């Protein structure tokens, strides 16, 4: 059902990446920039990738790291250098390329961009303009990249729980159909690294909101008993006088954002074979990825990017 993500260590800044990944070494500080790519985007006319925290020159996040967002703990100079290094590693660092990003606000706002304002407010970007790279910043939320294989159009979407609730990816398919005439059967979608259901604990109010919007909401959540070593070692100390089954239950609630966004894609008609999802959880893999929750807000940003090569 899902494609496979393979990392590569980007090297030569002059040589564009092909459809397959490969490993080499960057020239910046003798570090290696690791980029994740989806094998379902195996088109010679396409550039795409999901950054990691590996490589770069940012010092505020545990050493030299590839922070690609303008955050409080980092300098603008470092971020701009990191972005240039990342784009060169992708083969999109020449003057024939421009990058569009957004002021992300956890919305369902989607913008068609080709020139003019390349930094709108919203959480979705679409284009059919060669040489324009669409970027979405994340540090737990899902980056979702979309490609129309027939019409050579692309989209990039930011899907946290709020954007998912507002159907940002589902509306993204609709916007590509409206703007480019895209047919769902021709679309391919890659869901990049984000926080997974193993770690994404939410409150009951989030489940209630999803139940109000999706008939299948129950499939997106799981409950788990809270582990307490002291309770388990000394159970007699915590017995209550209530009848069995009537004591307060300590349960945790977890949301599966990957399943939620996959379901939206399937419901719009995108074939299952055209959807891939990264198995990497940002909270589990802070050695490789930034996680806003795990790192308690003091965290860099990754970029998921997609674009059409200039002719």
Write the layout of secondary structure elements.
Blueprint: E1 5-10, E2 33-38, E3 46-51, E4 54-58, H1 76-90, E5 98-100, E6 110-112, E7 124-127, E8 132-138, E9 142-148, E10 153-159, H2 161-165, H3 168-180, E11 187-191, H4 204-213, E12 221-225, H5 229-233, E13 251-255, H6 257-268, E14 275-277, E15 302-308
Parallel strand pairs: 5-8, 6-7, 11-14
Antiparallel strand pairs: 1-2, 2-3, 3-15, 7-10, 8-15, 9-10, 9-11, 12-13
Helix pairs in contact: 3-6
Short synopsis of the structure:
This protein has helices at 76-90, 161-165, 168-180, 204-213, 229-233, 257-268, and strands at residues 5-10, 33-38, 46-51, 54-58, 98-100, 110-112, 124-127, 132-138, 142-148, 153-159, 187-191, 221-225, 251-255, 275-277, 302-308. With 311 residues, the protein is an alpha+beta fold. The protein folds into two domains: 5-194 and 277-308, CNF1/YfiH-like putative cysteine hydrolases; 204-254, no CATH class.
Q: Would you write up a description of this structure?
A:
With 311 residues, this protein is α+β, with helices and mostly antiparallel strands. The protein folds into 2 domains: 5-194 and 277-308, CNF1/YfiH-like putative cysteine hydrolases (4-Layer Sandwich); 204-254, no CATH class. The chain has 6 helices and 15 strands. The chain has helices at 76-90, 161-165, 168-180, 204-213, 229-233, 257-268, and strands at 5-10, 33-38, 46-51, 54-58, 98-100, 110-112, 124-127, 132-138, 142-148, 153-159, 187-191, 221-225, 251-255, 275-277, 302-308. Strands 1-2-3-15-8-5 form a 6-stranded mixed beta sheet. A 6-stranded mixed beta sheet has the order 6-7-10-9-11-14. Strand 9 (142-148) and strand 10 form a beta hairpin. Helix 3 (168-180) packs parallel to helix 6 (257-268).
């Amino acid at each position: 059902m899902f494609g496979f993500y393979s990392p590569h260590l980007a090297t030569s800044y002059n040589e564009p990446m092909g459809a397959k990944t490969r490993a080499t070494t960057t020239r910046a500080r003798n570090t290696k920039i690791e980029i994740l790519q989806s094998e379902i985007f195996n088109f010679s006319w396409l550039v795409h990738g999901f950054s990691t925290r590996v490589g770069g020159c940012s010092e505020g996040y545990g050493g030299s790291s590839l922070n690609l967002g303008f955050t409080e703990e980092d300098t603008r100079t470092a971020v701009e250098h990191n972005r240039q290094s990342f784009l060169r590693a992708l083969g999109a660092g020449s003057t024939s390329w421009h990058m569009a990003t957004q002021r992300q606000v956890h919305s369902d706002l989607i913008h068609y961009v080709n020139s003019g304002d390349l930094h709108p407010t919203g959480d979705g970007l679409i284009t059919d303009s060669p040489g324009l790279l669409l970027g979405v910043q994340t540090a737990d939320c899902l980056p979702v990249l979309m490609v129309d294989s027939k019409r050579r159009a692309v989209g990039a979407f930011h899907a946290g729980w709020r954007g998912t609730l507002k159907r940002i990816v589902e509306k993204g398919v609709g916007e590509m159909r409206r703007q480019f005439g895209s047919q769902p059967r021709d679309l391919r979608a890659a869901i990049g690294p984000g926080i997974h259901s193993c770690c994404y604990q939410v409150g009951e109010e989030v489940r209630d909101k999803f139940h109000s919007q999706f008939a299948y909401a129950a499939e997106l959540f799981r409950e788990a008993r809270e582990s307490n070593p002291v309770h388990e070692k000394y159970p007699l100390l915590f017995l209550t006088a209530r009848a069995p089954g009537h004591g307060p239950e300590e349960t945790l609630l977890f949301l599966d954002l990957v399943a939620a966004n996959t379901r939206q894609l399937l419901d719009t008609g995108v074939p299952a074979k055209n959807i891939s999802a990264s198995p990497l959880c940002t909270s589990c893999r802070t050695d490789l990825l930034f996680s806003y929750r795990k790192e308690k807000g003091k965290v860099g940003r990754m970029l998921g990017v997609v674009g059409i090569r200039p002719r």
